[in-house]
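Supplementary Methods S3. Input chains for the assembly prediction are listed below.
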Amino acid sequence: MMHAGMPLSWAEGLCCSMLLMAIWAILARLPVLSEASNRVENSSPLAIWITRLLSSQLLLLSLKLLMVGLFFLVIICGLYGTPLPQQNLATELTWNIWWAGLIVSVFFLGSGWCAICPWDTIASYLTRLNILGASDNSTRLNLAVPGVLRSVWPALLMLLLLSWLELGYGITADPYATALLAMLMLIITTTSHALFERKAFCRYFCPVGRTIGFYSQLAPVALRPVDPQVCSRCETLECYRGSEQVEPCPTGLLMKNLKENSYCTSCTNCVRSCPTANISWKLRPLSQEARQDARPRHDEAWFVIALLALALLHGLTMMPIWEQQLQQLSAWLGESGLLLWGFTILLATTLLLVASLYAAAIAVTMKLCRQRIGFKKLFIDMAFMLLPLAFGYHIAHNLTHLWRENSWSWLLHPFGLPTQALPSMSRVMPTMGSGEAGLFILQSGFMLFGFCMSLLILRHRAARLASHDSNRRGFSLLPLALFALLITILQLWLLTQPMMMRF
Amino acid sequence: MKKTVFILILLQSLALPMIASAHHVMGRPSYSLNEDSNTPPSMQVETRIGDYFVTYMIFPAFPRPGQVGRINLYASTIDNGQPFQGTVRFSVRDDSWFQSKEEIIGDQPVDDNVFRQGFVFSKEGDYIISASFNANGQPYHIDFPLRIGQPSRVGVIGVAVTLIFVLLIGVNIAQRRRVNRAKMRQTQRP
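Predicted structure tokens for the full assembly:
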């Protein structure tokens, strides 16, 4: 079933606005960097209410239990329910609600999902059990994670595998496979928790955690010290080491050094363990972290590039043209059936194309810079500007799934109606009509947000690199601004195209 | 008297939730009918697709491997109830992992306004039966799940639980040995 895309006139209007923004970004003087205050200033009633709500342990526990219940329901419905994906709770809840809504939640709650993740909740519970009753330290070996795995490469590999299963194999249309994947993830999480110290899975291996971790650099909320001076004087480091009642930070973060949200799982262990109650949720400007606080790293830059490519791939695979290209390539390869080789080649090509385009933009920028900045340094540092481009489009694309693909019949019949057939035209756009304008407004808003944030990050990062030259304008940023514009136009074109439903 | 009425009400209320599932033959419930009976129970679906109202029946409702089954399809226009008179193509695909190959069972012409397609499955499992036809230049496609036999799915959960259990036991034993070794080292120190 096809869904009509955003009207072309909307996309043209957005393109014009973005072009003006890009011109401003190039012509205007680069911003003067000032040290932002790290003190938490949540004095407004709304801020106080939000921080209290997010820190509530009762709420956290209730949500954890709810998610565990839903997780088991997904497994049971996937294994024993109808194989028709749009009538089974397993596929509807996993792919249409959770997977699509997860990215939207980052915009409001940062890495809040990690705090209630059922994989971690169940694995943590299982590894706390002292089965044979003879161990002093539960069922954990607490081994150090091998050096080769101490990066985001394992998570990137898992993310590629997950995308391959989702878009190539079509796991989203298979309730049984969805249930198996859920169980497999639980086994991997439990194994990691049982073998390695802290929660190595959350820090190094989880594709979902890393994705929302990087996106949450743009989010308006984060856990931070109320008064950084108190933390700098602290010698007991309960946030890092834990206390008698509270476990240490699962990803080994030290609050006094914390500047990035990427690895924070929002578990609030630090809030509970801090003896001076100096840790709280902080409301901050959007993308502040990606603009000035986050430190560039090689593996993380590649993860962000992959995120952008995979976000584009999500849109591309739902175009009718993709199906034609895939079939042509597979016919040339002599492949039939699921066309997995053809898909794998196209996936690799998309990744390579995005990375090459970005590398080319960096190379030209390097030439235009009066200062001598190495290619690698520029490549890594400027990768932060790709984050909002991926994030904005990812949300805009996912909104289509959330807005149009949910039939909600699975709420009444989670296992599906075993005797109900699947007419391919029975789901003729049930929500089309007056609600469509709302969807397009939201999509336009997120696309504008992504592009605008990308330019801001680009200018701030460039100002950092050219810190000695206060009168510098952004002329040398032209290739990167053009790259951002090109990617955004491509994303807007994808949004205007008719989109094939998952199932 | 009150006691008797109370007991009767209690028995009645206990009996109410016990809803019996019965197949009906000529209006009479028949509790003993199954797929071996002369009039096997069927699975019937009525659905609307585009301009057509489609009725789809499978005999028997719970086919087993090697058993001959039959699909009856009846399609009529929603506007005037005119039965569809073209040809319907029936195909089948295995609904398990990495099995997407579709096999055409047959192209069936109309017979007394009904399209009839026979089938025999040699292996138990989950299948998707598809019926396709073209009417007024529009393609119509209906998918229908069909389970052959009783494929066990407890095994998957069993394997997962066993894996986790073995892992936890293994880690626990290793941890126990570590603790013991540490204690021994401590006692050996002068």
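The helical segments of chain B are 2-15, 154-188. The radius of gyration of chain B is 28 Å.
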